[in-house]
Amino acid sequence: MSKNLLLILTRNPELGKCKTRLATKVGDKVALDIYKFLLDKTVSFTKDLKVKKWVYYSESIWEDDIWDNKLYQKKLQKGKDLGERMMNAFREGFRAGFENIIVIGSDMFHLNQSDLEEAFSKFKGHNYVVGPAEDGGYYLLGMKYLKVELFQNKAWGTDTVLSDTLSDLKSEKIALLDEKNDVDHYEDIKDIEAFEPFLKHISE
After folding, report:
1. Which of 55, 58, 153, 154 has the lowest tally of Cβ within 10 angstroms?
2. How many other CB atoms are there within 10 angstroms of residue 129's CB atom?
3. Pick from 18, 3, 6: which is nearest to 119 by CA?
4. How many angstroms separate the CA atoms of 160 and 143, rounded?
5. How many angstroms separate the CA atoms of 199 and 193, rounded?
6. CA distances for 92 relative to 87, 128, 138, 194, angstroms
7. CB half-sphere exposure, 20, CA atoms < 13 A
8. Which residues have a Cβ under 8 Å from the Cβ of 47 and sit 6 or more positions away?
9. What φ, ψ does residue 27 adopt, rounded to 5°?
10. Helix crossing, 113-121 with 28-46: angle to 10°?
11. In this predicted model, what pLDDT tens digit does every residue of 19-45 receive, in sequence order?
């Protein structure tokens, strides 16, 4: 399985620096607690996945944290925006000899190990795999070949990212996964039971 690589883009969990859109409603402290909860969740559904795993930190590499050094290789994101950071991570993976590479973020509550196994299995008949997010972005992107256009001329964090990405892939063999919701705003979590402990002091 060593030809398969999972890239996980993560933010260092520091007060005021993560889930900033969520923080406008719940405050920096609760946003940080929720992000740490999502990081733990990401570890839980990736640690046993039978692929190589690289974690890309936003600010600095933390040697002693929730990402077990024996399971995850730790790296630093490079690039001025999300597109450039993803592109550089994919490029590094292909240069290292991997054939099937998937990137995810670390803010998915509804993703699990079998979803990722299914995504990797799609490479049998497709060159690209996309997991559409409900907000018009994507929660997962996979490729056999680096296509730099996917990372250029995108308004990252907006509802046009998915459609622009699919437009870039219209002539490619692409597999679309089930649509899922990532966690960016209060509305994304307010009705999910697992988040109730974080939100009990917040009024509508």
Report:
1. 153
2. 24
3. 6
4. 20
5. 10
6. 9, 18, 21, 36
7. 4
8. 68, 71
9. 90, 160
10. 60
11. 999 999 999 999 999 999 999 999 999
